[in-house]
Write a structure and sequence with these properties.
With about 70 residues, the chain is mainly α. It has one domain. The chain has two helices and no strands. α1 runs antiparallel to α2.
Length: about 70
């Protein structure tokens, strides 16, 4: 049971760091878009931001999945 608790704790800590990194990237990307499009209150800028972040997330997920598959030798 101790090993299972340690595994779950490690997974939760890793997820927490992932969330912190995602929030940091969110702030950085948002600042870039504000510099290009003006204030974040602009609906066009918000939509472009959401689409770009979604595309980046999808591409990153695909890349990570392929990398893991390659590392496992599949």
């Amino acid at each position: 049971m101790k090993a299972e608790v340690m595994d779950k704790l490690a997974a939760l800590i890793t997820a927490a760091f992932g969330l912190v990194a995602a929030l940091a990237w969110n702030g950085a990307i948002r600042a870039i878009f504000e510099a290009i499009f003006g204030t974040a209150d602009n609906i066009t800028a918000m939509l472009v931001y959401a689409v770009v972040v979604t595309i980046i997330a999808v591409l990153a997920t695909i890349w990570i999945a392929r990398s893991v598959k390659r590392a496992k030798g599949e």
